[in-house]
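Collaborator request log, item 7. Partner lab (contact: R.S.) asked for a structural prediction of DNA methyltransferase to inform their binding assays.
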Amino acid sequence: MDQDMKDSMMGALETVIDPELGIDIVNLGLIYDVLLSEDGFAVVTMTLTSMGCPMGPQIVQMVKTALYELPEVEEVDVKIVWQPVWGKEHMSRYAKMALGVR
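Returned to partner:
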C-alpha cells in the first residue's frame, strides 16, 4: 500500500468525530494503523479513549462508513486493541489545544 492511499484513508478517518470529545479520531491518536490489501480489504487498528467507552460500537460503525466512501475500499475490518494504552501523548497538538490539555 502506498503512502498516498494511507493518507487518503487517514483523511477519511479525520471525518469521524469522537462523540464525547468532539475531536476527530485521527487527531485524538486513536488510529494506530491502517492497511489496504490489493483486493480492497481495509484493516484499521485502533483503540478507544477508555475500555468502557459507550460510544465504541458507534465509532466503529462511523469508521467503516468513512472508509467505504473511498472507491478502493471493498471491505473494512476494525480491530480494537488496548495495547499500547491510549493517553494524551497520542493526541496531536491540535487536539490538545482544542481540549485544553497540556
